[in-house]
Amino acid sequence: MHEALEALIRFEERVSSFYVWLSAELIEDSEAAQLFITLAAQEQGHAERLRMEERILVEDERELEVHPDVSQAVEISVKAMDGFMARPEPPGSIEALGFTLDLESRSGEQLGRALLAEAVPELARTLGALEREDARHAEMLQEALALRLRRRRAANEL
Questions:
Q1: Across the chain, how many H-helices and E-strands are there?
Q2: Is the pTM value of this prediction over 0.70?
């Protein structure tokens, strides 16, 4: 169980690092860069909350069987982030926002959380809260993406 929880913690930390990287890549769009800094801090907060839950479970000497696909579920999203970062050209704001919107909306993290919450009901509340926060991240990303698409359309109409 702790391995599954650790996989989610590492994933939250990895997403935070990815968002910091994106903020540095998006120098031309300070609003998007700031959004990614904000999201990075929140993802790091998710990791810290999960670490706190992990300490409680360790103190209680809880050891439960968790579906092995938790780690595999988040690994899919990690590979997608790695691929995005490895591209030769830096991303534009619209591309970065679209990619991260997809990451926040349909990532393996959601499956991993669901499997972990099913196996460890004590974590369901925290995992549900993180899920709602990620839904808010998706809303923020969607709003930022829509704004940039409107700006692009307006510029093309000139």
A1: 6, 0
A2: yes
pLDDT digits (tens, 9 = 90+) for 56-82: 877 766 555 555 677 777 888 899 999
pLDDT digits (tens, 9 = 90+) for 83-95: 999 999 999 999 9
| Nearest-angstrom CA–CA distance, 98 and 73 | 21
Nearest to 90 by CA among 34, 12, 23, 149: 23
Closest CA to 6 of 138, 136, 123: 123
Considering all CA atoms of the chain, what is the largest pairwise distance in Å, rounded to the nearest integer?
Answer: 65
Phi and psi, residue 74, nearest 5°: -75, -25
Question: How far is 150 from 158, CA to CA, in rounded Å?
Answer: 13
- String of b and e for 71-108 (b: at least 16 CB within 10 Å)? bebbbebbebbeebeeeeeebebbebbbbbbebbeebb
Query: Would you say 93 and 32 are in contact if contact means Cβ atoms under 8 Å apart?
Result: yes
Give the span between the Cα atoms of 47 and 98, in whole angstroms: 23
How far, in Å, are 33, 66, 146 from residue 22 at the CA level? 7, 33, 18
